[in-house]
Amino acid sequence: MPPITPPTRPVLSLVLSVVSLASIATGALGATPSRFHQPSFDAIRPLVQQGIDRGELPGCVVAIGDHAGIAFLRAYGNRSLEPSKKAMTTDTVFDLASLTKPIATATSVMRLLETGQLRLKDKAADLLPGFGANGKKDISIEQLLTHTSGLIPDNPLSDYRHGSEEAWKRIYDLAPIVPPGTEFKYSDVNFLVLGRIVQELSGKPLNEFAADEIFRPLGMPETGYLPGKELQDRAAPHTRRDDGSWIVGEVHDPRAALLGGVAGHAGLFSTAEDLARYARMMLQQGALDGSSVLSPATVEVMTRGREVVGNIRGLGWDSNSVYSRNRGELMSDRAFGHGGFTGTGIWIDPGRDLFVIFLSNRLHPDDNGSVNDLIGRIGTIACAAIEQPHASLTPATNQDRVSLGIDKLREEGFAPLVGKRVGLITNHTGVDSQGSRTIDLLAKAEGVELVRLFSPEHGVKGVLDEPGIKDAQDEATGLKVASLYGDRRKPAPEQLADLDVLVFDIQDIGCRFYTYTATMRLAMEAAHEAGIEYMVLDRPNPIDGVSIEGPMLDPGQESFVGTFPMPVRYGMTIGELAQMFLAAHEAEGKLTVVPVRNWDPHSTQAENGQLWINPSPNMRSLRAAILYPGIGLLETTNLSVGRGTDTPFELVGAPWIDPWEFANAINAVGCPGVRVIPRRFTPNASKHEGVECGGIGLMITDPAAFDSVELGLAVASVLRGLYPDDWETKRYNRLLINQEVFDAVVNGAGPQELARLSEKGVDDFLRVREAALLYER
């Protein structure tokens, strides 16, 4: 679910290599689909550039399209940085790493299934003589495909150093590390074995079988193992060997390399255009341009998401699991995909008629880099770019981009601030639609004197996650940054004495207990007490501007995590909140809200095109932000809500929870728009650090129907019913701040009763809210 697209601009050849859409309109790539809103793709460039600037990748190729062809194909950055710099091109050849698993190996297995040469329930030991030793005799083909075999993720590299024959002997000697079928453990060994089975049954090495049965029929001439010299010359390099040479055009995975470059888990090379043909085949139910690779029934069985010990997986494919960080947030529950260690990813969504291909060499040049978040964000942009009459995907203002308050101020030449001494409250989220910092824009604005900076919780860079934040200094401007989350929560009079105006520009998320709203309110009070102007540069909240979800905060119980008597979700922008705060206290003082434009309040950030920046260290996706109002209420208790994992607020658990019992009870409540699956996870920080927790994973299936607080209260009700002696409720009211609802939870009220109590007082709030709204609802 996603982000704002900056205006299209000329592209520097040093940064980007671009193929025009005209050049991909026809031919082998298929017709250019017209169902995509092309300007929406403009948001990809700044995201990629930020990753390049942070050293997360040297460059990449992105391809987006549907069953008919490619709608978007771009190369960004550089193919190589060392030993010499070479621009990335759309025909760059990439080591696909673990994309080998679904595209070569699993597809080959499904071909053998279609011809009756194997069945999913067949035992691998019956197909590979000798494999069944040491407790492996009952491991099935399906368990290998779904990573439930119990086999180790990778056996020691030393097992491969004495030749292929010895390597396979040692693989055959492995014993499961957990009983087969009991846990989901992603394992390269699973697909090494599957590749060997393909060879045994077909009489051909895996590379030859895949070429004959998949790649040649699909017209994919640049896909395969062991690329020749012409393809190697176009290959993206990885890291340096011990002898100083670069790994380029040869498989990076050391086990695949020691097996001669052909293996079931790694070794496949390809280009974006070739992979687009594979994706189109899958979207066309197994056929492309008259060649049938798989039957529609086989595609359905292969890609159907099934529960796999608390994860949703297909056969060889990911669907929604602990490895789905690279999944687009607006993809349907039919989407399937996979990532590769070298920096590759592919997602195919029959429910959206969409494919998203991302290819990079993130390991170049220093064996570092990270692209999973970037792949997921690009997938979200792709989903939102589909033009179709669906309220959850396309806002009413689809042809217009959202313009932020800082954009409007910049367009006006900063006129309201000219000749004034300015203090700015901001952090890393204070950027314009093109990603330029508000700090830098004001510092460079002619006639504007930027005197002082202030930062909220998490600091000016948004990366600190600790009780007190110290004053700092902005590196780019040299300005001092006064912390408003340390010794003070409100600007001191002496910090405002030399200012004419105090400006606030921070991205809120739309949840009552997110502390940026308290910082805004306290700073506004301080500005008015000092007799200076207060200005809010408005921004849409990412989780829409209309949804109201109780319960109300009890009057008189205001605090830094509950600054005003309002519901948990209040459906307002930060500027509208400022208007409401001012009116409610009948305060005297000048407040200016610089409004947003072209914003549909019914849209989430997925639809309005605004650039996603993690608002705080653990708010890592729009999906997390939508879940946060309900799930965040629980984290003051003895539960983990996923902090210390890759998916904060998408998990709920504790060591004393039975995941299946817990998930079944919550699903029985029937909260709309969400799917709950049993999960086990081990946080590496925060609650239950280093301790395995049983619990649930949360999948939003329909954002428009989903009520996060309703889910959060349902979880609380189920916890109280199932684990009354284990779940500690005494701190549950710290963020809830509603005594009646809290008492009802403690007394064992059911979800429906809690939902009813949560509605109390909301109508009165709506009347107060109405007077402060700046945008038509």
Explain briefly what this protein structure is.
This protein is of the alpha+beta class. Helices cover 29% and strands 15% of the residues.
Mean pLDDT value: 91
- Helix fraction? 25-40%
Number of strands: 24
The portion of residues forming beta strands comes to: 5-15%
CATH fold-type name of the largest domain:
Beta-lactamase
Number of helices: 25
CATH H level, superfamily name of the largest domain: DD-peptidase/beta-lactamase superfamily
| First-to-last CA distance | 22 Å
User: Low-confidence parts, pLDDT < 50 over ≥5 residues?
Assistant: 1-28, 388-399
* Rg calc: 27 Å
Main sheet attributes: strand count, strand direction, barrel closure: 7 strands, antiparallel
User: What coarse outline follows from CA principal-axis ratios?
Assistant: globular
Structural class: alpha+beta
- Work out the count of structural domains: 4
For the record, the CATH class of the largest domain is Alpha Beta
The CATH level-2 architecture of the largest domain is identified as 3-Layer(aba) Sandwich
Describe this structure in words.
- Helix content is 29%, strand content 15%.
- It has 25 helices and 24 strands.
- The strands form six sheets. Strands 1, 2, 3, 4, 12, 13 and 14 form a seven-stranded antiparallel sheet that branches. A seven-stranded mixed sheet has the order 17-18-16-15-19-20-21, sandwiched between helices.
- Strand 7 and strand 8 (291-292) form a beta hairpin.
- Helix 1 runs antiparallel to helix 12 (372-384), helix 20 (659-669) packs across helix 21 and helix 23 packs antiparallel against helix 24 (751-758).
